[in-house]
Amino acid sequence: MAEETNQGVWGLVIDLNLCTGCNACVTACAMENNIPWVGEEDAGYGRSMSWINMQRYWEGEYPEVSPSYQPVMCQQCGRAPCEPVCPVFATVHSESEQINLQVYNRCIGTRYCANNCPYMARKFNWFDYAYNIPEPMNYYLNPSVTVRRRGVMEKCTFCVQRIHDGQENARAQGRAVIDGEIMTACQQACPADAIIFGDMTDPESQVSQALRSQRKYVLLEELGTQPKVTYLKGEGYYGG
Amino acid sequence: MATSVVHMALFKEEQLDEAAEAIQVLRNLGISDKDISVISGTPFSEKMLGRPMAWTSIPLIGGAGAVVGFLVSVFLNFGTPLLYPIQVGGMGLQTIPTSIVLTFELTMLGLLISTFIGVLVETISPSYGPRGYDARVTDGQIAVLFSSGAELDASLHDALSHLGAEIVHGAEDKKLWP
Amino acid sequence: MAAEVKPIPNAIPSPHAAEEEDLREHLMFDPRPREEMNRMVMDSMTHTTPRYWIVVGILAVLTAVLLYGVWGYMIFTGIGISGERRPNYWGIFIVSLVFWIGISHAGTFVSAILRVFKAEFRRPFTRAAELMTTFGLAAGALWPLIHLGRVWVFYWMIPYPNARWLWPNFRSPLVWDFMAITTYLLSSTIYLYLPLLPDLAMARDRTKGWRHVVYKFLALGWRGTEAEWFRLRKAINIFAIAIIPVMFSVHTIVSWDFAVAQTGGWNSTIFGPYFIIGAILSGVSAVVTILIILRATLKNMDYFIRLEHIDALGKLLLVFSMAWAYFFFNDYMVSWYGGSEVVRTILTFHASGPSAWIWYVMLLCNVAIPWLTLWSKKLRRTPWLMLIVTLGINVGMYFERYTIIPITLGHQRMPFDWGEYTPRLPEISLALGSLCLFMLLYMLASRFIPMVPVWEVREGQEAHQLRKVGKTVVPSVSELE
Fold first, then answer.
1. How far apart are CA C202 and CA C191, in angstroms?
2. Domain B5-54+129-168, CATH number (from 3.30.750, 1.10.287, 3.30.70, 1.10.10)
3. Chain C residue closest to B93 (CA)?
4. What is the ipTM of this complex?
5. Which residues of B touch A226 (CB under 8 A)?
6. Looking at the domain assignment, is residue A216 inside a domain?
7. Residues C227, C230: Cα–Cα separation, whole Å
């Protein structure tokens, strides 16, 4: 096994003041990470596979209601509750990226990790969804990402394939990774630039600057999971 | 002992006192305890029959199995994480609280399995003493088996019949296990 | 007044006759010759009616279709044919796992704990209870496999050296579970087998044909020598004492599947003993259910299994029902009082959500009905009533696990992801199929294994005698061991 060295701590900041709840991130994520659609019936039943849950809460009494949106994906916990409960080490902590990995080939589908995830960020392949994609459509599948079969758990990876891609490019050109060079699919697609991604160990990176905001908070901080996703509190300017 | 024949004295279920008495009679006739064995359908302890205590190494075998189980659990708990180190949930590679569970289970598994293996080995390994069997034993009868020379036949017969035993001369050893 | 005292004529000849006659209702004071008991047990084993074969046939078909057929279909299509979904990732599969593992506890409880504490009433039905343990585990051990998304690689949970030197995660409660269930299954099967040796020898001496061959092999050449009895007693004592902590550990570990998670409503330190008590409650109920059915259907069983046994187990049930209520209240009260918002929401939801009826049925079956009926000696000695009460307790215990698993999972910390779970037909079919499997195995075994440990009953009858105390006789038990 190659020696794993720490190559930055990747973090994601989502500014809820800018988020409009447009779901572009959800779509981009699905295209990037080979997330299959599950059909109307299963999606309605609560089996959609998208790695980002666009949580929408209504505030106020009808008809004076306003929505608030919060995209929730895997929070890449530093002390992830999902990891130690897996019997076969199918979800592990990555030393080099400081994120939480899901090893699809190792997963046997006990679904324990999903129960123990307080963010409900994990999705399960109830059927062979990805194998049922009709003929020309399967050309959209991204060759850099594994296509998952039935019975396997999956979740947001912080687009780990893009992180590696960026690092390899930089190494080939003999330079360090430039801040903003590596973008997650959701970040790239966000029309409001509400999602910021980068190395949290670099004090000048956009992520680090955003993290100095007074509005920052992490979800369910009291559980001590040490998430790598930080939210900037929204003030309800948007929407209805 | 080439000339000796195995005899069997069968006593009814309720004749335990007579059976114990018969063993004493045989002893008085000069037949040693190792040439006598008792088979019964219900457990009677050696004390009831006035016989030397039996001996078994089952607890020893069981204990040895427990030690093996314990050592295996130590390897699994503390050895395997070093073979392929994987970090999970911010825990250390070797965690003592979680290891206790597996240690307990495997120690018990070792103890119980090897106790059974002990029974198995001791049951099918050859035993000493006179052999012989009668199906009436599982009906609760008590059979006293003994081997003696032909010169004692007459006195034996008298003494044992007097106690109410049914005597089978030259009891056969059936092959009870393949 | 003294002038009005009249002697009762019947009492004069033998003042003890009435008492002795009363004691005859106890198996231990109603001895029959060993030969006759052997014949009765052999008869019960070899006697089959057409009705028996019809039931066995139906159960075999149901097991094949409902359990293996549907399971096979699910393996090929995916877990999605069940009603599970986000956030109820665990449903009927895990509920049934906990249920069957719980059922399997009573065999060991009845057989080992009552043996260690020398409770004499255990003697005739230890075998029936141990069989229940083994088959309960056989049905229960299927569920973790049925539950797996990719069952064809289940062996990755087994620690074995492989090319990558990758071992299972020994910090996962599921691996503990796997090891604990394996340990328990093996040891309880051996614990069933050891006291069976003298009875197999008895069966060997009384059968011909294929039965003789099989019994001869299984009896390991048992003759009944002093050394054999001594070894057997030694081994049974080791087992009876060692299997008790194993039994406690198994259900504790099952409870830790939930308790070690930080999931709201699961993370509770009392889950271990709470689950153990629940398991014993449901298991002892199942023993009573089975004894009543055996007594009614298996030939000659009414001699061995008597109302006194159902009565004694009924008292135990009352105690365990109270203990269960104590633990339930403890868990509920403490979590609700000091609990976080998420736990409080869950507890409120249990009692007032759309599936609240499950919660109330649980309390009705586990607490209200046993407490109202089991006080009365008369009711405890009414078999049909006990059948209803004990079946009810098992329904209640199934619902308890249902409340703890899918209902609790549906209301976690993210209100946006709350959800409810309704089992779908395939799951219900699998659950019924495992029940059919259990009944099928038990019915087949009842015609193959001597259901009564004759030598233990005999030993007990020898240990019991009547002792005259003043003007009456009292039972007295001597320790033969």
1. 19
2. 3.30.70
3. C171
4. 0.91
5. 90
6. yes
7. 5
Euclidean distance between the first and final Cα of chain A, in Å? 54
Counting the structural domains of chain A, the total is: 1
pLDDT higher than threshold 60 for residue C5: no
Instruction: List pLDDT tens digits, range A167-219.
Output: 999 999 999 899 999 999 999 999 999 999 999 998 999 999 999 998 999 99
Any chains having at least 3 CB pairs less than 8 A from chain A are B, C
Place of tokens 């409880």: C109
Q: Are A112 and C174 in contact (CB < 8 Å)? A: yes
Q: Which helix (H) or strand (E) segment is C282 a member of?
A: helix C271-297
CA–CA gap between residue A112 and residue A117 (Å, rounded): 9
Predicted local confidence at residue C11, as pLDDT: 47
- CA B100 to chain A, closest CA, distance in angstroms equals 16
B41 CB neighbours in chain C (<8 A) are 34, 198, 202, 224, 455, 458
Identify the three-state secondary structure at position B10: strand
Q: How many CB atoms lie within 10 A of CB C321?
A: 25
Taking the CA of residue C191 and the nearest CA in chain B, the distance in Å comes to 9
Instruction: For residue A2, tell me if it sits in a domain.
Output: no
Tokens of C372: 């109202």
CATH of C37-159+167-306+425-477, one of 1.20.1630, 1.10.530, 1.10.10, 1.10.150: 1.20.1630
Q: Closest approach of chain A CAs to the CA of C182, in angstroms?
A: 15
Residues of chain C positioned with their CB less than 8 A from the CB of A55: 414, 416-417
C contacts of B88 (beta carbons < 8 Å): 169, 171
Which tens digit of pLDDT belongs to each residue from A72-97? 999 999 999 999 999 999 999 988 88
- B55 to chain C: nearest residue by CA? C227
Flag whether A237 is in a domain: no
Which residues of A make CB contacts under 8 Å with B? 1, 78-84, 86, 89, 91-93, 95, 226
Helix C126-140 vs helix C271-297: angle between axes, to the nearest 10 degrees?
120
Which C positions 21-50 lie with beta carbon below 8 A of chain B? Answer: 33-35, 38
| Domain coordinates in residue numbering, chain C | 37-159+167-306+425-477
Distance from the C163 Cα atom to the nearest Cα atom in chain A, whole angstroms: 13
pLDDT digit string, tens, across residues A111-168: 999 999 999 999 999 999 988 888 888 888 999 999 999 999 999 999 999 999 999 9
Between positions 238 and 267 of C, the ones with CB within 8 A of B are 238-239, 242-243, 245-246, 249, 253
Question: Looking at beta carbons, which pairs linking A192-195 to residues 24 or more positions away fall under 8 Å?
Answer: A192/A18, A192/A19, A192/A20, A192/A22, A193/A18, A194/A14, A194/A15, A194/A16, A194/A17, A194/A18, A194/A19, A194/A20, A195/A12, A195/A13, A195/A14, A195/A15, A195/A25, A195/A71
> Which pLDDT value is given to residue C295?
93
Tokens of C156: 């990755």
Give the distance from residue B75's alpha carbon to the nearest chain C alpha carbon, in angstroms. 11
- Is A186 a member of any domain? yes
Mutate to test the interface with A, among B82, B86, B88, B95 (most CBs of A within 10 A): B88
Q: What is the CATH number of the domain that holds A175?
A: 3.30.70.20
With beta carbons under 8 A apart, name residues in chain A contacting C417: 53, 55, 120
Does C126 lie at the interface with B, CB-CB under 8 angstroms?
Answer: no
Spans of all domains in chain B: 5-54+129-168, 58-124
Q: How far apart are CA A64 and CA A122, in angstroms?
A: 34
**Among A12, A10, A3, residue whose Cα is nearest residue A188:** A12
**Three-state helix/strand/coil letters over A143-196:** CCCCCCCCCCEECCCCCHHHHHHHHHHHHHCCCCCCCCCCCCHHHHHCCCCCEE
For chain B, the residue count is 178
